[in-house]
Amino acid sequence: MNDLGECLQMVPIFSDLPIEVIDQIVQTGNKKTYTKDSVILVEEEIGTALFVIIKGKVKVSRSSNDGREVILSILTDSDFFGEMSILDGLNRSATVVALEDSELFIIQRKEFLDLLNKHPEITIALLSELTRRLRNADMKIKALSLKDAEGKVATVILQLADDIGKIKQGVVEIEKLPLQQDLANMAGTSRETISRTLHAFARKGLVEMDGSKLRILDYEKFSETFA
């Protein structure tokens, strides 16, 4: 198995497949590199492929009626996107932009649907992952609707911790925290509110800031406080 095959084995929907099937998937798609700030997908365009992140980081966002950006999620290595349009045949529901130089593996719609037909375990894993994302979306909707500014920011921090954080002895480190404006777009608040709230969390001993790194000092306590 080559390096690409090993990367695909880390993707949740492919992780339980035998090596020979992974090798087949490698042959069905192709790799493409996107530089930082490149637009990968555009909201409302026709969806024709599934994208798997081999290396890099992207943001998934939508535009409001008044032109404001709302960031839905930040995705990184082994994450995938573009599956909704493949499954329902409708246009893309969001725009995806590379936050850093990224290498993606692209599987066209026909080939991916063939994989689902031949390997039901991929379908089951896909349903599990979509359910997880739906639960996260429900949590975010609740936060944006019912919580105060501190709760909204905490919800975004927890989302990033789950998506790109690394945990060690109860401490979760987010190595490259998104820009404060991007955090504001995720939380539905202002950049100033993000800055003020992060400093408040630090004063309370809930987090540590070190350049672009953020550490949640007691993840369990932080999660329970803002659940």
Q: Which characteristics define this entry?
A:
single chain; 227 residues; alpha+beta; Jelly Rolls; Arc Repressor Mutant, subunit A; four-stranded antiparallel sheet
How does this structure look, described?
By secondary structure, this protein is α+β, with helices and mostly antiparallel strands. The protein folds into two domains: 3-137, Jelly Rolls (Sandwich), CATH 2.60.120.10; 147-225, Orthogonal Bundle (Arc Repressor Mutant, subunit A), CATH 1.10.10.10. 45% of the residues lie in helices and 26% in strands. The strands form three sheets. It has a four-stranded antiparallel β-sheet with strand order 1-8-3-6. It has a four-stranded antiparallel β-sheet with strand order 2-7-4-5. The protein has a four-stranded antiparallel β-sheet with strand order 9-10-12-11. α6 crosses α7 (180-187). The longest helix is centred in the middle third of the chain and has 27 residues, at 120-146. The radius of gyration is 18 Å and the shape is globular.
Percent helix: 40-55%
CATH architecture of the largest domain: Sandwich
Strand fraction equals: 25-35%
Detail the poorly predicted runs: none
Number of helices: 9
Radius of gyration: 18 Å
Dominant shape: globular
| Count of domains | 2
If strands are numbered along the chain, what order do they take across the biggest sheet?
A: 1-8-3-6
Category from helices, strands and their pairing = alpha+beta
Largest beta sheet, briefly? 4 strands, antiparallel
Instruction: Give average pLDDT, whole number.
Output: 90
Distance between the termini: 42 Å
- The H-level CATH homologous superfamily of the largest domain, spelled out, is Jelly Rolls
What CATH first level of the largest domain would be assigned? Mainly Beta
H/E element sequence = HHEEEEEEHEEHHHEEHHEEH
Strand elements, count: 12
